[in-house]
Amino acid sequence: MARHFAARSIITMVAISCAISLAAQARFTARSDVAVLHVAVTDRGGHYVPHLDREAFTVFEDGVPQPITLFSGDDAPATVGLLIDNSTSMYALRTEVASAAAAFVDTSHPADDLFALTFNEHVQPVVLQDLADTSAATALRMALERAITARGRTALYDAVERAVADLTAATHPRTAVVIVSDGGDNASRHSLDEVRASLAASNTIVYAVALSNPADREGNAGLLKRLAQTSGGLCFTPGDAHRIVDAMVSIARDIRATYTLAYAVPAGPPGVRHVRVTVRRDAMTLHARTRLEYVAR
């Protein structure tokens, strides 16, 4: 089934796995009294650990254990925004980035809702034309090859703010932003502090592919890594252009392997709450990766 891409609205895909009922999924939608966490679990070898039950997880908020009220470990669809750098520094990598985005679509859940934005000093939606007998991946690759003109400055923060705003209309409980950029910003109206606040107030995971361009002194892979780690995501730094595809495929697989759980927000003043998740199976402690904080309203 083809995926659709939109600017301000996200076009809903109806095909959802029967393993999760629509009612259960609706209960995961963002509410001020429920904290939602997306948790990736791996063993000591770095392999994903599937088929865990609720009892394997323990959630701590500011050091205090919290009862898990909702839980899903199924390979459920997600709503994902692809943010593709379209500034001058992208010129040499535009073909590889378009192919990597197509590989991401091919690896993602068939019922994902996806939208794509390019950004230089302006943030623009990627518009796909309806092409008969063309897969969503091929259509996206063709659209990006047209859209990536590699000109102008970089408004990375504006692009993230736009994506987080678009994701407020998400129909799936799992939401993610995938950034493909060198991490530099020299044209945004929004600030880094605003971006961090917006991400902390949402349950969106940030993934990043930090591109290296020796000629670009404004690149900031460290910033992309910090945004990803704080939100519970991953940052990849491919050493050459051919590894960009591998990075995007790894991100798609990580999104599909994520558990989703929720708990009631404890009483207290509004503000930042710090969270931690531990996972055990058969007396073995597993590695759990999730966001480090959220904002209680």
Give the overall silhouette: globular
What about the largest sheet? Answer: 8 strands, antiparallel
**Element order: H for helix, E for strand:** HEEEEEHEEHHEHEHEHEEEE
CATH class of the largest domain: Alpha Beta
Question: How many domains?
Answer: 2
Structural class: alpha/beta
The proportion of residues in beta strands is 25-35%
Describe the protein's architecture and organization.
Helix 2 (94-107) packs parallel to helix 7 and helix 4 runs parallel beside helix 5. This protein folds into 2 domains: 32-75 and 258-296, Sandwich (Immunoglobulin-like), CATH 2.60.40; 78-256, 3-Layer(aba) Sandwich (Rossmann fold). It is built from 7 helices and 14 strands. Helix 5 (192-200) links the parallel strand 8 (174-181) and strand 9 (205-210). By secondary structure, it is of the alpha/beta class. Mean pLDDT is 88; it is low at 4-30.
Question: What's this, in brief?
Answer:
The chain has helices spanning 22-26, 94-107, 136-147, 156-166, 192-200, 221-231, 244-256; strands spanning 34-42, 57-61, 64-66, 70-72, 78-85, 113-119, 123-125, 174-181, 205-210, 235-236, 259-264, 271-281, 284-289, 293-296.
Keywords for this entry:
297 residues; alpha/beta; Immunoglobulin-like; Rossmann fold; 2 domains; 7 helices
